[in-house]
């Protein structure tokens, strides 16, 4: 699907959807619990549906009541479970160790870029601890019972490996240790996992080198759970506020463990005005100036921050962002391409971008932006084109459904122009 974006600011209030990262975790906790759990959810997505289907394949069940979903915990099943993770890295990397801890025989599939995204570190650890895993890429088959012990891995390839192990290891008979051999990146996501585990009564002790996880634990359902609002997707609207007219997002809790709430400090650093009142956050325009952004802990914010950088006066350097190359697209290459298309001077580095803001060149003819099948590129391109005053066609805009199916409906409600061609 190609969508044509018109020039013009966005303005108004958005009720934020549930955090995809939080909801993945709550669904997994609920599926492993001793009792059913009522999940209060505001808006699903392709990735969350992938997690639900995979949990169902592992023996959980669901009853949908509007947006809300009652989760019935996994029951033992002997037959091969087919887990289609679609394009969701979280689903794959969280549920592979969980399936191994449940001792399930699984066939794991995926599409888009997921089969190329790395999982070798995880599959190797599962093999070392008693499982047969046929391949280091999708599709793969896995069988056998995961055994506890020491799991050593780097902390800077994907935090999703660590989250998957943190969910799985409490289920084993034996005690386990996760030993991190490098510094941790995407730390906020590990904090989200620890927060979820605590809510389900699971004990994990954090030490200097990693985590100690006692075996033989049981997840306890708290009965009803509500996912926090989505700071990662709220960032698209808040950045639109920084670049143009004021935008308010409701339902974004400041005490959420999501690392992406750092968007507020970064937009302030650019020069935008931020007001917080309970869980209502308003961002409005200030004179934006380029800055240095360390992306190690906030990879998902980088695509939209490129647009703030394009609107800011002077140079913005995005550093420590090498991991963006192994997401749904090579996000450094995709964003360099997108910025060039919009007329923004940009230099692509091995692990970052240098963006020269406030210096737009005039487009020669129609602007067409390839979203490379990546939801965060679609949303960044839409906000960027509108707010930088460029009419542009986004190719492959349907990718937005991976995390935010209602994005364009909201975009139009906020006064944006988006026409399906
Ligand atoms: O745990 C999570 O919910 C996520 C972790 C991050 O991945 P990495 O740890 O691989 O950077 C992030 O990019 C992804 O969108 C969601
Ligand atoms: C990278 C993302 O998700 P995942 O790794 O779960 O595919 C994302 O939502 O930007």
Automatic annotation (TrEMBL):
This is 3-phosphoshikimate 1-carboxyvinyltransferase. The active site is at 300 (proton acceptor). Pathway: Metabolic intermediate biosynthesis; chorismate biosynthesis; chorismate from D-erythrose 4-phosphate and phosphoenolpyruvate: step 6/7. It is found in: Cytoplasm. Keywords: Amino-acid biosynthesis, Aromatic amino acid biosynthesis, Cytoplasm, Transferase. Monomer. SUPFAM superfamilies: EPT/RTPC-like (SSF55205). It comes from the Bacteria. InterPro entries: Enolpyruvate_Tfrase_dom, Enolpyruvate_Tfrase_sf, EPSP_synthase, EPSP_synthase_CS, RNA3'P_cycl/enolpyr_Trfase_a/b. One of its GO terms (cellular component) is cytoplasm. One of its GO terms (molecular function) is 3-phosphoshikimate 1-carboxyvinyltransferase activity. Its EC number is 2.5.1.19. It catalyses: 3-phosphoshikimate + phosphoenolpyruvate = 5-O-(1-carboxyvinyl)-3-phosphoshikimate + phosphate. NCBIfam families: aroA. It is an enzyme of class 2 (transferase). 3-phosphoshikimate binds at residues 20-21, 25, 158-160, 186, 300, 327. GO terms for biological process: amino acid biosynthetic process; aromatic amino acid family biosynthetic process; chorismate biosynthetic process. Phosphoenolpyruvate binds at residues 20, 89, 117, 160, 331, 376, 402. It holds the Pfam family EPSP_synthase. Residues 8-409 form the Enolpyruvate transferase domain.
